[in-house]
Amino acid sequence: MRTTSSMEPNHILREIRKVLDANSCDYEQQESFLLLCVHGEARPEGEATGEAAGEGRADLVQWEMEVCKLPRLSLNGVRFKRISGSSIAFKNIASKVANELKL
């Protein structure tokens, strides 16, 4: 999983959008280089939580992706930050997105 690149920040952002679209993720641009991303389905209210209840269903995950400059390295990086949703669901989608990025 590579999340650093010498590509221009705008090109990195374009690549991120392409990968998010390919993975059916919704996103909203919060700032110039910050995206708020959403993936999965919300559980109906009142549905039991636990392993048996959630088998075979994607949990709703929200996270931020930010293109940022890495000091002293002359590289740009992509920062992932989970906002809500289970850690495992976040790890799964974040890893998938990061691995598909062509940086």
From TrEMBL:
The keyword ATP-binding belongs to this UniProt entry's keyword annotation: yes
Any single GO molecular-function term of the entry would be: ATP binding
Organism's domain of life? Answer: Eukaryota
Is Transport among this UniProt entry's keywords?
Answer: no
Q: Which UniProt keywords apply?
A: ATP-binding, Kinase, Nucleotide-binding, Serine/threonine-protein kinase, Transferase
Q: Give residue ranges for domain KA1.
A: 54-103
Q: Which SUPFAM superfamilies match?
A: KA1-like
Reactions it catalyzes: L-seryl-[protein] + ATP = O-phospho-L-seryl-[protein] + ADP + H(+); L-threonyl-[protein] + ATP = O-phospho-L-threonyl-[protein] + ADP + H(+)
Task: Give the EC number.
Answer: 2.7.11.1
Q: Which Pfam families match?
A: KA1
What name appears for this protein in its UniProt entry?
non-specific serine/threonine protein kinase
Organism whose genome encodes this protein: Knipowitschia caucasica
Could you read off the lineage of the organism from its UniProt record? Eukaryota, Metazoa, Chordata, Craniata, Vertebrata
